[in-house]
Design brief:
- The chain is mostly beta strands and 274 residues long.
- 0% of the residues lie in helices and 44% in strands.
- It has two domains: 149 residues, no CATH class; 104 residues.
- The protein is built from no helices and 21 strands.
- The strands form four sheets. Strands 1, 2, 4, 6, 8, 10, 11, 12 and 13 form a nine-stranded mixed beta sheet that branches. A four-stranded parallel beta sheet has the order 3-5-7-9, with no helix packed on it. A four-stranded antiparallel beta sheet has the order 14-17-20-19, with no helix packed on it.
- The protein is elongated, with a radius of gyration of 22 Å.
Length: 274
């Protein structure tokens, strides 16, 4: 189908392609209605275009499910897709998983400096002979303009990898403290940040959450709340989000109302603006 497809709606309804290098190559104004690509190198190739690609599609044990092949600063594709995915992660030795189709990224961009896709991909992933899987959806470039929504785990995540885990540092938890996020369940959109305290704890401090994939130029707002774990926060304790200063991290300022913390303390976070 032509990349420029104005005044036309192309509908791909049903059908299955197996064993080809590229399963489907589509243009703008395409509506997917249940096609399936299996055992391909690229299940679907989508070049640069200005109008959206929408619908429901499937990929089974293909090295790459979707290839956004556009290059250069003008590379752009608007997508709103529901992807049914059967994928063999690297090292999977179950029947049906062949070595050649476990090495690739599920999403691939033709230009990693200008990843083309903008929008959202909702997905349901299964592993052969195992069942529903958390993912992640891997790609070869950070792309803060594309969201993923895992229908199995009910999680949103932007950027390079759906379900990718951010990192955490902080202050106030004492020497030899450890910082982290709860896994599974934490990602760049929501989760639980915690520290396991060391010696010399304080009554106030910070958590600095560094995203697995950088945000775009419009920084989303964040909400944080204190979570009682092995330590119960003081009844007047607070968690205040610092002003968003960059697109790579967010700082939470916690204060236990004059009482030094002990054991493990935790904070829930959520970015409703993403």
């Amino acid at each position: 189908m032509p990349p420029v497809n104005n005044d036309t709606l192309s509908v791909i309804r049903g059908g299955a392609v197996a064993g080809y290098y590229i399963g489907y190559m589509v243009g703008e104004h395409t509506l997917f209605d249940g096609p399936w690509a299996s055992f391909t190198i690229y299940g679907y190739e989508i070049p640069t275009q200005n109008h959206p690609i929408t619908g429901r599609l499937g990929a089974q044990e293909s090295q790459t499910a979707i290839y956004f092949s556009g290059t250069g600063s003008g590379a752009y594709v608007g997508v709103d897709l529901m992807l049914e995915l059967e994928y063999c992660p690297s090292g999977d030795s179950f029947s049906g998983c062949m070595s050649w189709n476990t090495a690739g990224n599920i999403i691939v961009y033709g230009d990693t400096s200008y990843p083309a896709a903008h929008g959202i991909i909702r997905y349901h992933m299964v592993e052969p002979n195992i069942g529903p899987a958390y993912g992640p959806i891997t790609s070869n470039a950070n792309n803060p303009h594309l969201q993923f929504y895992n229908l199995y785990s009910n999680e949103y995540s932007p950027g390079n990898t759906a379900g990718a885990v951010p990192s955490l540092t902080g202050t106030g938890c004492g020497s030899a403290a450890t910082y982290g996020v709860a896994v599974p369940g934490s990602n760049d959109v929501s989760g639980t940040a915690y520290c396991t305290t060391g010696s010399g704890t304080a009554s106030s401090g910070t958590f600095v959450l560094t995203f697995a994939a950088p945000r775009g130029t419009h920084y989303p707002g964040c909400v944080c709340s204190l979570l009682n774990s092995t330590m119960t926060w003081n009844a007047r304790a607070t968690c205040i989000v610092a002003p968003q200063a960059n697109n790579t991290s967010t700082t939470f300022n916690w204060d236990n109302n004059g009482t030094a913390i002990s054991n493990s303390v935790a904070v829930n976070y959520y970015f409703p603006g993403w």
